[in-house]
UniProtKB/TrEMBL annotation, chain A:
Main location: membrane
Subcellular locations according to the entry: Cell membrane
Transmembrane intervals: 36-66, 99-120, 132-152, 180-203, 234-254, 291-310
Protein name, per record: Sugar ABC transporter permease
From TrEMBL, chain B:
An example Gene Ontology biological process: transmembrane transport
Membrane-crossing residue ranges in chain numbering: 29-51, 95-116, 125-152, 158-176, 202-226, 259-280
CDD domains listed in its UniProt record: TM_PBP2
Keywords in alphabetical order: Cell membrane, Membrane, Transmembrane, Transmembrane helix, Transport
Pfam families membership: BPD_transp_1
Signal sequence, start to end: none
Subcellular location: Cell membrane
Membrane topology listed for this record: Multi-pass membrane protein
Residues in ABC transmembrane type-1 domain copies: 90-280
Organism: Streptomyces spongiae
Descriptive protein name: Carbohydrate ABC transporter permease
InterPro entries in the cross-refs: MetI-like, MetI-like_sf
Main location: membrane
Amino acid sequence: MAVSSAGSRARAQLTSAEGDVHADRRRRRRRGGDTAAGYLFLAPQLLGLVVFMVGPLLFALVLAFYHWDGFGTRSFAGLSNFAEIMSSPRIQCSAVNTVWFTVLQVPGLMLTGLFFALLMQRAGKLTPVYRLAFFAPVITSSVAVAAIWLWLFNPDISPVSNALHGIGLPAPNWLQDARFIIPAFAIVGIWQGLGYQLVMFMAGLQSIDRSYLEAALLDGCSEWQKLRHVTIPLLSPTILFLSITSIIGSFQVFDYIYVFFGDGAPDSARTIVYEVVQIAFGDFNFGEASALAFLLFLALLAVTGCQLAVQKRWVHYTE
Amino acid sequence: MSTFSDTISRAVTTAKGASGSGRPARHKLLLHAVLLVCAIGMALPFAWMLFSSFKPLGEIFMQPPKLFPQDWNQQGYRTALGGADFVRGFWNSTYIALTVTAVSLLTSAMAAYAFARIDFWGRRWLFMVFLATMMVPGQLTIIPLYIIMGWLGWVDTHAAIIVPPALFNAFGVFLLRQYVKGIPVELEEAAQLDGAGRVRRFVTIILPLLRTPLTALGIFTFLAQWNNFFYPLIFLNSSDKFTLPLLVNQFMGQYTSDWPTLMAATTLLAAPMLIVFAFAQRQIVEGIALSGSKS
């Protein structure tokens, strides 16, 4: 992100420095007109920003401190919504489930994505064929994905269970056994998200200047050394970007659970966003749901903030 | 836009040349074997979906399960198409996704142009606000948004899921601004000397030059909207307004163990995008990679 914007900024500065003084004076005189023009072009998105983003955000912040079902009277709740959340064993369980899902899914996604990107880089003419298979789940509706896996996780009819039995392994009853529900979600998530990671890693690999790899080759580096000391450091901006977006995405997992279980998910399957939706649109407790969504937002900010804070130690930018 | 394949083929030729002897031939074979097996593994769930949708119910419970139906049967599709209005769902999904995509591309490009090229009061901090909102999870704003839609009388209407994403797309504004900044100012200045106003310059110079990022962003937006589940789920109640994912989700509640019908419904949901993808693979993959890597 920094690389491209710095490049275009430098270019923009260059051109404005070249521009003559007259143009500069003209620009300054027309500033009033420019402000009008600026807001004219910005108007639709600015309206959207205010009505559909900033307004609701402030509203959510206020709601978090109120008791309200959306219709009756609002009453000030102080911190009681937050206290309610903190003392609820079910929500604690959902928070643990969400973190557990993230811990399983993010490394699973990124390691398989990188692995297959490295392989596909050498696949030559057949690359589009493989890519078709890996990327197809990405563009498929998560409802369809969940429906397919609902079948594949059903121990009575699933070919997966059958195959596991075939090689002498016990096949878990994925969606009924509390220990396997979250790993099952992670399997679905990895199947669906892998293609995106793969494509992003391939784009990252493509942008690596080949002279680095040639230099490593001349120095007699092994494939592994090249990967460890050249490719991975040069891919670090991609790795940072994907780790941030995948963690944010994992924390917000909802669709699969809702398609699998509807409104009646067992405790071991619930995640934070599922709780938010149930509390808001099942119990019509808008205050508590807003408070919980707000806590999720803070957690995301904290995690992303940590990632950005430690990035200097391991992320290399080439420009 | 053939850079993708170019670079890959270049990488392959140098890999061949560099490693010298005949050793890589075996490696290559192993590489393709691994990729082929894994690609088939990735595609298998789709194959099960498709072939099971043509099985009679009895064959579903056969042990061991077989991929291909022994008795090809369209009963699943007949039940599915009779049980819900798929054509309507498909139309709803498609026109909603198209409208959002078209309007949001235009409004995002306009805002991007303003941020990149027009020197107006408050530009810097407004842009910071746009950037900051990208961190806000949709689940935080959905509750007040639901209340606001109630006030506007938009609950259970398509306006509730069209207008917000059409009028607000911080990511799109950010992405396009990068590209507008890359367009030489001189092009616009020349047109300005010829007497072209802002709007004319935007339409005749900037928009055509943004074709690549607009296509990428358009693909990204269309797919995200067509497949969106969360927002329609919250805002729509009547099934004649449902988008295709919602319709299939509702269907799953009604036909819990009629697997051929469920798989037929799922196939009808997955097929349109898979068909589009098969024909426009390169554009879609590059579009999504471009949208991702620029942020």
